[in-house]
Design a protein that fits this description.
Tetracycline Repressor, domain 2, single chain, HTH-type_TetR-like_transc_reg, Homeodomain-like_sf, Transcriptional regulator, TetR family, mainly alpha, transcription
Length: 212
């Protein structure tokens, strides 16, 4: 599976520089990438100052790439909010959405894995606005699943279950990125079907416990 970054508009030197820089940072690490490398990968003549007409430094380019990704994630979150009832009703659709979002975050994730300790502000923004927000959204789904059988849902239980359920999908995708193939060669459709069954089985088990 080819790494994917934030959605970029077609054309435009600035957008090409953003896409090229993010890909190179993910592949090589921030320090190993030179300005000329980014310019060349963007289809520009290297070391002629093209990048500096749009970004004052590599750090500024990476910050802009993260900002662009956060905007893209916010758009996806808005879609999620608008379709939240559909995702609550169908764990399979939710699972497919999670995998698609993970794919869009692949390059940013690789950059932060390599250089997060030196890009602390960007790392923390990504954690708060993307990772933590994703877990909060999953917590709301867990609460909705349980609300039909429980008058009140323990907040910490819902948080912990959200981490475990969402973490299962995240780990499967990240394992595929790291090792080059999914566990057992499972397809996305198989992963999603099994994950939905896991979610539904857990909810059914909680309902049976409540009525026992």
């Amino acid at each position: 599976m080819e790494p994917q970054g934030p959605r970029q508009p077609d054309g435009g030197t600035r957008e090409r520089l953003l896409a090229a820089g993010l890909r190179l940072f993910a592949e090589r690490g921030f320090d190993a990438v030179r300005v000329g490398d980014i310019e060349q990968a963007a289809g520009l003549v290297p070391r002629r100052g093209a990048m500096y007409r749009h970004f004052k430094s590599k750090e500024a380019l990476l910050a802009a790439a993260v900002e662009s990704h956060l905007v893209s994630v916010a758009e996806a979150r808005a879609q999620y909010a608008g379709d939240s009832e559909r995702f609550v009703a169908s764990a399979e659709q939710l699972g497919a959405f999670v995998l698609a979002e993970m794919d869009r975050q692949q390059l940013i994730t690789h950059v932060l894995e390599r250089d997060g300790n030196r890009l602390v502000e960007l790392r923390d923004r990504f954690r708060q606005d993307v990772s933590d927000a994703g877990y909060r959204a999953m917590t709301e789904v867990v609460r909705a699943w349980l609300s039909s059988t429980r008058p009140a849902v323990d907040a910490r239980l819902a948080d912990a279950v959200a981490v475990h359920l969402l973490g299962a999908m995240i780990n499967a995708r990240r394992s595929t990125w790291t090792l080059g193939a999914p566990p057992f060669g499972l397809t996305d459709a198989e992963l999603v079907t099994a994950w939905a069954a896991l979610c539904e089985g857990w909810v059914a088990g909680q309902s049976a416990t409540d009525t026992a």
